[in-house]
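Sequence in, structure out. Go.
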Amino acid sequence: MITNLIADARKIVIKIGSNTLADIDGKFNFSFLDEFAEQAAALIKKGKQIVVVSSGAQVAGLSAMDKWARKKDIHYRQALCAVGQVQLMKAWRRAFEPHSLHIAQILLTREDFNDANRTLNMRNTLFTLVDEGIVPIINENDTVSVEEIKIGDNDTLAARSAILWSADLLILLSDIDGLFDKNPKEFTNAALVEEVKDISLIEKNITIGAANSFGTGGIATKLDAAKLSLSYGIPAILTNGGKPRCIEALVSGAQKGTVFLG
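Output:
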């Protein structure tokens, strides 16, 4: 199912979570970016169009400003994101350069989607960038959006970006293999749910665990994102972005995940 969805999709939004972008020490995982860019470039050569929704501003900020690691004040967290956003884009540019691909930065908040003029401008910019062969990197504007730092919303942002762009497929890369009937980090007998057609039903029958350490969302935000995406006819895949060459593995059918279908 995953292989067929990717094969049939031309316009793909890929969301990358903070834990996927961080190494074991919580610093920036540059090798992941290099590997991802290479795989994305291969998809683009096959005629796919890619939009990336990237978390990681705080992770990148910590890599640059380690002395702020223990500061919890909201102003420092926002300042950390401001520093980190520069580092994040620098890292993405470096990763895509060997493949002769340019990137573009788009910073958004929820309010941007609630204004008709902004939405039209966002849509036009997104289409223009992709049509010109540029890879847009979308992120929350964490320096001005306090709520986003508290709860995280890049899963929903990815779904809204997919809707805005009229994408064919949404892929959510996380630090888990997909949706389980229980939290696999707490229960060894948790079973992977490989296909979901009724999210409301599955929500009643699974145990949702807490958010992870670097990211600010959990499985609940991913279910909400899949539900939003499906409401516009866009299927979604949740899978583990930390596995080696995960995009290639998805394409070949070697990596499992959870597929959300309408």
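Check: Confidence is low (pLDDT under 50) at residues 148-152, 210-216. The beta strands are 11-16, 49-54, 103-108, 135-140, 169-174, 179-180, 192-193, 195-196, 236-240, 258-260.
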